[in-house]
Amino acid sequence: MRDIDLRRLRYFTVLAETLHFGRAAELLHISQPGLSAEIRRLETQLGVTLFTRSPRTALTPAGETLLTEAEAVLAGADRFASVAGALSSGQAGVVSIGSTASVLEDGLLEAVATLAQEAPDLCVLLEEMSSAESTAALRTGGIDLACGNAAADGPDVTSTRLSSTPFVLVRPAAPSAACPLPRASLTLSDCADLPFSVFRRSASPRFHDTVRALCAEAGFEPRFTHRSRTWRSALDAVAAGLCVSVAPEPIARAHAARESNLIIAEVVASEHRAESWISRRADGPSVLIDRVEAAITSGIRDVARL
Predict the structure, then answer these.
(1) Is 248:170 a contact under the CB 8 Å cutoff?
(2) Which candidate, 67, 60, 248, places its Cα nearest to that of 149?
(3) pLDDT bracket for residue 206 (50, 70, 90)
(4) 102 and 131 in contact (C-beta within 8 Å)?
(5) What is the pLDDT of residues 98-147, one digit of tens each?
(6) Which three-class secondary structure string do you get for the chain?
(7) DSSP state of 260
(8) Would you say the C-alpha torsion 296, 299, 302, 303 has a positive or negative sign?
(9) Cβ atoms of 51 and 60 closer than 8 Å
(10) What is the residue-averaged pLDDT of the chain?
(11) Which of 31, 56, 111, 231 has its CA 20 to 30 A from that of 117?
């Protein structure tokens, strides 16, 4: 048997619903003789009679049995078309993202959560990586998007800056034996003799070097007593009363809102900024990746404006 024409199956189901060739032809926007001919062709192809024609149009027992199957086939075809349309419009599919912890904390998680509500058929896979790891995975096809604190270089990738925010000085709410704050109103230049929390350079050369540069601008070399791989652990050390630190403003404010023992002492006046970037392969358009990238870009920029 040749493949069944879905158009003829649809003619069959509409005629089965109306049991009237004239009304079915009107609903299907074809002529009544044309509909009758198509039903005859379908019956010949199937080798069964689907309808009796006189004294009135009615389904035969074979027609009754095959109607349920025809409706299931057409529903499956409709679902197939719907999923294909969702994929082509960026509403469904799977996109993998490699991201540094700092970008995850800087609004990426919120952006992905919002996207999940708007497009429940779209699956976003997140994997925490360093900037170097995510750029390498992007180039080899291991991930679709890379989010980090620097742009990925090279003609094979394109990068868009997501945010650029100042650093702030963060301190414990009260002095301690480990961190004897010299005064309540603290500036970075007052911190020359205080212990500091910093990123391990192996985890983020950019953030490590930026903390050193900010302290150098304030006139001192910081004394690092706590080295971390994430801003969360760096700020947890401050909240525990062990040290002070500088951190990107949005991350510090979010942490301070959750932790009463963490105080933002000042916004550090400097040209050094905390940046986040999103990168992708420059190997052709993808509606799905375009949608996810646009949602992340918009979401993180909205967080940065708060």
Answers:
(1) no
(2) 248
(3) confident
(4) no
(5) 998 888 888 899 999 998 898 887 888 898 888 888 888 999 888 999 99
(6) CCCCCHHHHHHHHHHHHHCCHHHHHHHHCCCHHHHHHHHHHHHHHHCCCCEECCCCCEECHHHHHHHHHHHHHHHHHHHHHHHHHHHHCCCCEEEEEEECHHHHHHHHHHHHHHHHHHCCCEEEEEEECCHHHHHHHHHHCCCCEEEECCCCCCCCEEEEEEEEECEEEEEECCCCCCCCCCCCCCCHHHHCCCEEEEECCCCCHHHHHHHHHHHHHCCCCCEEEEEECCHHHHHHHHHCCCCEEEEEHHHHHHHHHHCCCEEEEEECCCCCCEEEEEEEECCCCCHHHHHHHHHHHHHHHHHHHC
(7) T
(8) negative
(9) yes
(10) 89
(11) 231
Strand, helix or coil at 216? helix
284 torsion bin: left (phi>0), alpha (psi -120 to 50), beta (else): left
Per-residue pLDDT tens for 6-26?
Answer: 999 999 999 999 999 999 999
The residue among 114, 137, 115, 104 whose CA lies nearest residue 254 is 104
Predicted confidence at residue 305, as pLDDT, reads 53
- CA triplet 199, 201, 202: central angle to 5 degrees? 115
Instruction: Please indicate, yes or no, whether the overall pTM of this predicted structure exceeds 0.70.
Output: no
CA distances to 35, 49, 69 from 73, in Å: 20, 19, 6
- How many residues are recorded in the chain? 306
CA dihedral of residues 209, 211, 212, 215 (deg, nearest 10)? 160
Structure tokens at 48: 């069964």
Q: What is the pLDDT of residue 267?
A: 96
